[in-house]
């Protein structure tokens, strides 16, 4: 702390308006608040961006998980043994006048030939009957 002739107050210091190093301090309080808001929001926007990125990644992981579940379900249905269902469908042809021994032979044939079995199951009853009548002729 200076004492005596070395001590000065702000009143003693002469400030020139032409001073090259001086800065204009003409600003509004609203401008200061605006700058403060910009600075503080830039810090939170990084956090928001990071949270948004994490949310997008979580959504993607969830989407992939759901799709993998759908694929697993489709594979399960695809590999599911359809033999009992096919047997029941072949034996329904007994109502159309085919004997049991013949239908057992048809079932064994279809069990060995997956493509033929799919075609048989896709057909309506009257078309199945036509197929089996041709089968008896061969």
From TrEMBL:
Protein's recorded name: Uncharacterized protein
UniProt superkingdom: Eukaryota
Phylogenetic classification of the source organism: Eukaryota, Viridiplantae, Streptophyta, Embryophyta, Tracheophyta
Disordered: annotated span: 34-56
Organism annotation: Hibiscus sabdariffa
């Amino acid at each position: 702390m200076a004492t005596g002739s070395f001590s000065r107050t702000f009143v003693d210091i002469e400030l020139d308006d032409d001073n090259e190093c001086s800065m204009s301090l003409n600003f509004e309080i609203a401008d200061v608040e605006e700058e403060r808001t910009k600075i503080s929001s830039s810090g939170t926007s990084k956090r928001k961006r990071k949270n948004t990125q994490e949310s997008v990644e979580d959504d993607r992981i969830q989407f992939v998980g759901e799709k993998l579940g759908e694929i697993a379900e489709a594979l399960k249905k695809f590999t599911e043994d359809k033999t009992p269902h096919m047997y029941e469908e072949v034996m329904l042809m007994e109502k159309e006048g085919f004997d049991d021994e013949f239908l057992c032979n048809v079932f064994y044939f279809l069990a060995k030939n997956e493509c033929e079995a799919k075609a048989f199951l896709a057909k309506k009853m009257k078309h199945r009957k036509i197929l089996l009548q041709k089968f008896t002729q061969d």
